[in-house]
Amino acid sequence: MTGSWVPSGSVGYAATKAAVNQMRALAKDWAAKGVNVIAPGYIVTEINDDMWDLLIGKKLLADFPRHSAMTAFALDPMILYLVSDARAEVTGSIFTIDDGQTL
Q: Residue 33 and residue 12: Cα distance in Å, rounded?
């Protein structure tokens, strides 16, 4: 989300985003296993598909630098990286994949 605008009814969403950002504590405890987090931006899903035609969805899209929400496939390259041997030396990192939505 951009700025300080937060839609009503989003406390659960906001709490889970905060929890993701605190995963560094888990990463320290489980450093040998390698714990990393993907912090995705807005993704079009069956749950929110109708929202993008409403005023709230249009406002969000207008505020995003690229004026679009992502598809779930946008996360695939990072997921593949994180499950590969290439990430062996990476732990405790938060990867923001949001197409610039938080800029």
A: 28
Would you list the domain boundaries of the chain?
Answer: 30-97
**Alpha carbons 20 and 22: distance in angstroms, whole number:** 5
CB 88 within 8 A of CB 34: yes
> What separation in angstroms does the CA of 92 have from each of 15, 20, 33, 40, 47?
20, 11, 10, 16, 30
| Whole-angstrom distance, CA of residue 74 vs CA of residue 93 | 18
Which pLDDT tens digit goes with each residue over 9-68?
A: 778 878 887 887 788 788 888 888 888 989 899 999 998 899 999 999 999 999 999 999
Answer for the pair 67, 96: CB distance below 8 angstroms, yes or no.
no
Q: Which tokens in the block code for residue 86?
A: 């290439």
